Amino acid sequence: MTLVAILVPMVALCVVARGVGFLLPAGVVTALAMLVDGLAPVQEVGATLALLFAALPPFFLTRYQHDATHERTGAAVPFFALALMVLLLLACNHAGSTVFPAGLCTMVAGLVAVVCRQSMVWQWAGLLTCIEGVLLSAVLGHQPVVLGVAALAGAVVLLLGGMCIHRIMPRVVPVRAAGQRGRRTEQPGGGAGA
After folding, report:
1. In 1-119, where does DSSP find H-type helix?
2. How many angstroms separate the CA atoms of 137 and 110, rounded?
3. CA within 20 to 30 Å of 191's CA: 30, 40, 168, 177, which one?
4. Closest-CA residue to 121 (of 165, 163, 65)
5. Environment class of 181 (CB within 10 Å of its CB; exposed 0-12, middle 13-18, buried 19+)
6. 76-94 and 102-116 helices cross at what angle (nearest 10)?
7. Count of CA atoms in the C-beta half-sphere (13 A) of 181
């Protein structure tokens, strides 16, 4: 197993600790881990989907105001995810597996974010991280059916999460444009009064 595949769960832990901001690096590293062994069609499709599911949410969230929900369990969550990853690695070693379970560790990190975080944006990032893990497991295991199911699930999560955020979160108001319009309307009146 390459170093890139080992880095995927570490970046997934960053998503758990810091939120959707690390989703794009997680998708890039996941895509690289898929393409390291070659350029088979399953690998190319999986890498494309990983980049798509990781790049769209941060771009979409730039249109909305920052989610200021305070996390009550902020400090303990990444360590909880790390402990579950270590237990998973020990279980795989005990079972005699020689393959590093990068996809499973990424899924665990995503599930921890979904269960332990309160904010909808964090949970959206956690679900997409979990799907990244399923995609990676499907590509490394050469399972096109699992890849198709994960792609469908990712599209549903992407669409439903975007719709929920659109309904709940306030949009970013273009302050500069409103300020310039106010100045333009004040100037004619100010000139007439002078």
Report:
1. 3-18, 23-35, 41-61, 76-94, 102-116
2. 14
3. 177
4. 165
5. exposed
6. 150
7. 5
Q: How far apart are CA 173 and CA 21, in angstroms?
A: 21
Residue 194 has pLDDT above 50, yes or no: no
In sequence order, the 6+-apart residues with CB closer than 8 A to the CB of 13 are 78, 81, 82, 85, 109
Residue 90 C-alpha from the chain's centroid:
26
- Return the amino acid letter for 82: L
Cβ neighbours of residue 168 closer than 8 Å, sequence gap 6 or more: 120
Q: How far apart are CA 157 and CA 167, in angstroms?
A: 15
The candidate with the shortest Cα–Cα distance to 18, out of 77, 59, 80, is 77
Reported as a single tens digit per residue, the pLDDT across 131-163 is 999 999 999 889 999 999 999 999 999 999 999
Give the separation between CA 85 and CA 66, rounded to whole angstroms.
30
pTM (whole model) above 0.85: no
**Distance in angstroms (rounded) separating the CA atoms of residues 106 and 114:** 13
Closest CA to 164 of 130, 132, 119, 133: 119
